[in-house]
């Protein structure tokens, strides 16, 4: 039996990829829904492993930290060579798989772009 999924709406800021000639940084705060912490962690680990592989050469840094206050909160710190590298990351199968289920797994998704100076 297939379960309907509700896609997680993108935080408005994630679509506003900075136009710059240098690396771009993304900081994402994710809070799993109650009871979904282990599943969110599994998906994040898959995205991280793919992002840190040779399949994403434009992903310079992809780190995930879990809150010491509780297993439901994560911070994802990402650095991409440029906008094309970010789009390559979001076009990947592991990223798409996470976001196809995010609506049922994730309670909070907040992102913010930063540029290096």
Structure, explained:
By secondary structure, the protein is α+β, with helices and mostly antiparallel strands. It has one domain: Alpha-Beta Plaits (2-Layer Sandwich). 31% of the residues lie in helices and 30% in strands. The protein contains three helices and four strands. A four-stranded antiparallel β-sheet has the order 2-3-1-4. α1 packs antiparallel against α3 (93-105). InterPro entries: ABM_dom, AI-2_Isomerase_LsrG, Dimeric_a/b-barrel.
Biggest sheet character? 4 strands, antiparallel
Q: Beta-sheet strand percentage? A: 25-35%
Report the mean per-residue pLDDT as an integer. 86
Helix content: 25-40%
The overall strand count is 4
Protein name: ABM domain-containing protein
Organism: Pseudomicrostroma glucosiphilum
GO molecular function, one term: catalytic activity
